[in-house]
Amino acid sequence: MTAEDLDPCSASCPPGDSLFYPPSPPGYGTPDHCSGHHDDSSIRYSSNLTPVSIFQNFNNTPPLDSSNNSSEGSYEESVENSLDNNDKSELLPAQAKSDGGSSTLGSIFLIVNAALGAGLLNMPKAFDQAGGVMTAVVVQAVLLLFIMVALLILAQTSNINKSTTLQEVMYTAAGVWGRRATSVIVTVYCFGTCITFLIIIGDQFDRAFASIVGDDYCHTWYYNRDFVMPASSLLLILPMCYSKTIDFLKYASAFGVFIIIYVVALIFVEYAVGEHVPGPIKTQPDGWLDVFSVVPVICFGYQCHVSVIPIYSCMKHRNMKHFTVASSSAIAICVFTYTGAATFGYLTFGSLISEDIISNYNANKPSVMLALVAMSLKTYTTYPILLFCGREGLSTIIKDLFITNDTPGKEKFRRCTIATVWFAATVLLAIEIPNIGAVIHILGSFAAIFIFVFPGVCLLQTTLMRDNTLSSYRSKGKVGLALVFIVLGFFLFGVVFTQGILTELKPGSKEVLLCTPAASGAKFYLSLFNLL
Q: Which of 3, 322, 522, 528 has the highest CB neighbour number within 10 Å of its CB?
């Protein structure tokens, strides 16, 4: 039994029969055979806790009739149980718990692979810009507290209606417009991240060919990044982009995680050998605003909040206990990897560190050459995860606006079409935008929305739903924490976004290619067609 067998009409892997199964909103078009939840208690529960804005409904809770009171208890008890019970596994059918889905270990690999990637290359440079190792580590430690709490808030909120995507979680917390706004932001973020991954692939091939072939490698058409990057991505990435479920990628994710460990080991060994002469090493920031320069890279590096809900929905044991183990273990691996690579990488080169740390090493060495290949292979395994999340975000927008009666056939056609167009568009833009730093600065600001604003809204709404009068200190504390999340999120978004734009507008901020071809982009392909 595969994960898709649990629910053939789900974009992820929700349990096939759950008391928390939400009724489909108008226009969402769930086929009749996908809504076979006919248990009376399920129907009564769903009628009282519908996946619409909690903020709109907590003051107008419909009264339960006497028959419902005898079997289900009060509305408040239902909400209390849905929010506070950390182990929902007893509510699921035995088969849903034992068959299909990802194990906790598989989920760890999926989360790590979703978070670990382009940020690793840029993190040492961010340490330099922030004012040294100590400053950057302190900022990272503070942000990690919010990152972990945010993951738990999102997972807890997803349990209310067994949501399978981030936009469904926001639908529970903020209604249909919350879902639509989230879908747009998720789509834009994932699209930009996919462009970043393709840029990394091109950069690693450039370094490898420059060392093997020579500085004029790009004048040979089959060494040109405009050919190698699209061709290799077509063979290694596109076939993994059509999966209906995200747990299909757990084996590729495990492979990607082990690959990245080698890159970190190389950075440590190069520091220990001591062959490099570092530039000036900072011990404090030049100005207080410099501290914020590391924020976008950290947010971008640890941002797995978009993909964590689909991953959670595909867990064999979907409950907070197993999710906490998976998410905390995954973040711990990321902390070890990012901090180790950034610290030893920065101490090796000091202020001479580049935006892509691997470009600082001599690619003629076999160990460095292997790291270039490893980074490319890692990126091939991460791209499909972000495409999956972005595809579901775009699909949600299309269903909300244009589709009133969805069918499995329409879903399959929509899924394949979006994946194909998405892949082609990101490849074309990656060819035209060869600077990874520009993309990371912008995406880092959007990551602050996922890490701070969305979890803050979820915590605020679920707290008001359970205790709309804020009669307890616990509820007041949660509302206070939610407001801190929201305010801090918008503040960081504004600061990081503005700082990123100003940085890219500075003279000399453009990337210098290792080899400048005679023609690039569309002109390259026109010349290639003439050659053939």
A: 3
